[in-house]
Amino acid sequence: MVGKSDKLDPVWEDLDRTMGQLFIVGFDGTSVTPQIKTLIQDHHIGNILLTAKNLKSAEDATKLTYELQKIAHDAGHPVPLAIGVDQENGGVNSLFDEIYIRQYPSSMGIAAAGSTDLAFEVAKATAQEIAACGINWIFGPCLDVLTNARNQPLGVRTAGDDPQEVSAYGVAFMKGYQEAGLATLGKHFPSYGNLEFLGSTLDVPIITESLEQLSLSALVPFRNAIRQGLDSMMVGGCAMSSAGLNAMHACLSDQVVDGLLRSDLHFDGVVVSECLEMDALSHNIGVGGGTVMAVNAGCDVVLLCRSFSVQQEAIKGLKTGFENAMISKERIYNSLRRVLTMKSRCTSWDKALNPGGTNYLETLQPSHTALSTRAYNHSITVVRDKNRLLPLTNILDSEEELLLLTPLVKPLAASAASRALSETAANTASPEPATWDRTASVMSGERVFRELGRSLARQRNGRVLHTSYTANGLRPVHENLINRASAIVVLTADANRNLYQHGFTKHVAMICNMQYTTGGERREKPLVVVSVSSPYDFAMDTSIGTYICTYDFTETALNSLVKVLYGELNPKGVLPGTISKSQKLHHSKQHWLVENFNDERDSAALDALMKVVIEGTPQNQHSELSSATSSSFILHDPDIEESHFVVRNSSTQALYGFCSTYFFKATGTGVIGALFVDPARRKLSIGHSLHNRAIRTLLQREGIKRFQLGSRLPSLFLGIPTGHGQERKRLRPWFANLGWSAALSRPVCSMVARNLSTWSPPDGMAKSLASAGFQFDLVYGWDYSVPILDHIKTNNRQGLAEAYKMAMADPSACGVIRAKRPEDGALLGTVVLYNQHSRLAEYIPPLKDLHESAGGISSPVISPGVGEYSTLLQGLILLGMRQIKAQGCNACLLDYMDGDGNFDGFSAMGFDVLHNFEEVSCDAATWTTIPPA
């Protein structure tokens, strides 16, 4: 143990030797290369990062780590190398060996099993296995909180979206690793759980949350792990942009490292930088300068993944920084002390030169195999089984066929499939489905999931059909197989980030829902959807009646899945985080009298309240209520049940708060469309009281399936308003405290294109559209309603059908642009067109807010499985803009657009974002506590 005041061994007076301890480097190859040998011998590099590219097997890994340590020992290193790996389990394992290294669930899979004791056992077993191969530093646990689960690259690498739960499992993993003698590394400080991605590789993802927000959520696991003895911490390369904290790269910022991590959280372990070879950093700053900045910011060890020339540049940069007095000697030796302290806990020369190897791994095998099976069996989660399709043996006779549809994905590093599959094969699918019976021995389908097909076939007398699907969507071969099979199992893997999987699955669900018997009766064909990665794919989509999560697709996970499908295993897993918890309302101490909105009595007072809210909006913000009136909230639609509520002063008739609710019968969706309070009377529980009354009313609606924050119709608040300003940043946690899971929010926005008089389509867009081969037309009125309403049934968003019906009932001011397939005239896409004089415009105040002649484009619906989705969507909008321009309008509003999309195309067409929102949905069945009357 080397403390800050302890005297160092004189050997460390050699500054080159000391500086070598401040780097961790990687290299390519499964054996020692001349480059890594040079770095260890000549540059005294003290830390090595091994990846899957270095590690072929447990036996080879043991040999490699021994050779690296022997080179360091013979070169006179005073202490052994710290040799680290990423071994998170699930899909992130650097070391895989079918014989000696067991597979275990991902962090989220372990959290789904619901036991921190199991987490400790799995972490200890994982650490024992890699320690036997000579590794002494594990890059884990992952302590990120998924404060926004959509489109985040972390996925199942973190335990979920609940800070306390992530903290509990993170500490359990950490303790397990340490029990087996490894040094631990928490990541990715200050959080990768809610990053905004800008698109270019030269742009870094950004954390926009304030320090206050981070402290309440994202920093909780890091803080607790530090208190429990975390050895080291990786600081990410993300940017930070919020009040009081701005950093281009967190790991280069003294505000983040010396300030937030060292001073505020009192961490005195080893701080490791993100890899300085990343494009954004090396391009914008340079690795030499970046190294100096990282060390000055407080990083003890600088990570350089694999480029020998870059690694040399970094070493030279550190020396130059010291020689030019940019880095103090005290800074360097403080870092050295921390590194030596960590090494003293996890290694020694006796341990480094005598790894346990495969002999020790053989002794671990029986107990670890049993632990792996137990962990997976406990993690598999049946989220829903509405029609009781499980086990499949209850609904499938032996002569009936089962169809398995799997996405085209690359295999996980931690799988036998990845060893048998080349990069080329991973991107090629056999066009022919594989047919399985009990004697099948060779399968020609998509190879990543071939073992699952085999396992399903072995478990039943009937045949199993298996084929893959791709971004090309539903093909005739899929339709034929669906019609032929008696039950279908569809697998998805991160469908939120691979949108083709979402569209394909929804298309299959629609076909299954429209099946008929020979007698003409409608009979829903059994469909089981299995998420083999992120559980958020269909967690909130109750139209998928039977939904299972495995959290990864290693062979062991899929074996447990087969047991669940055939009833050999009773699944015990529960979705981790806030999404699975019974949503309980936090009753305010003060309950205001909430009354029904009375149009005659309250309309003038509501207009006055909105004026006060608008006036209370900060000058740099534009209020969503700017052009709304009290009538903007009243739909008068027989297919929508609406109830609106007020808190008012019965003496003065003034309104203190207002809340609107809508129940869309067609989709079973209960919506809170607006909730606002007089700025002078906030924080008095008026909003709580209105919210409680709204939820209680919606829960009583017959057929209620889900709740939603944000309304498509009327289009005032499409969700929780987002953007700059402290008030808006408080809205998200305010609703979260009321029971809404903001981790599954959906970004939506309204957009506007101005100056249509001088507008023209982007170069090449019209030509590209023509070459796509779609046919477009513009139709008006109810005569065209049947095929249009059939088409939009593929989209179950609330308010969509109502918007189309309103448009078709108003042919003088509204129309529908259709895109059709030339061969058979099938509808592929539609969009509503409307002008300022339409009834629809009354419920879309942003159109009036433009303060000029304007028209609107609304509610695009593209058929699932259309391969040219973006082209078709842009085509519909382009034609709409032309029509609006031809009518003499100078502005065009897109009143409701998914914020997940890539807006480069829309920006090129002249659109800018007008308002941003987060639409939040949840299953009504999870809201078990009815607020008091």
From TrEMBL:
GO terms for biological process: carbohydrate metabolic process; peptidoglycan turnover. Keywords: Glycoprotein, Glycosidase, Hydrolase. Pfam families: Acetyltransf_1 (PF00583), Glyco_hydro_3 (PF00933). InterPro entries: Acyl_CoA_acyltransferase, GH, Glyco_hydro_3_C_sf, Glyco_hydro_3_N, Glyco_hydro_3_N_sf, GNAT_dom, NagZ_Beta-hexosaminidase. GO terms for molecular function: acyltransferase activity, transferring groups other than amino-acyl groups; hydrolase activity, hydrolyzing O-glycosyl compounds. Signal peptide: none annotated. It comes from Polyplosphaeria fusca. SUPFAM superfamilies: (Trans)glycosidases (SSF51445), Acyl-CoA N-acyltransferases (Nat) (SSF55729). This is Glycoside hydrolase. Belongs to the glycosyl hydrolase 3 family. Residues 15-341 form the Glycoside hydrolase family 3 N-terminal domain. It comes from the Eukaryota. Residues 641-709 form the N-acetyltransferase domain.
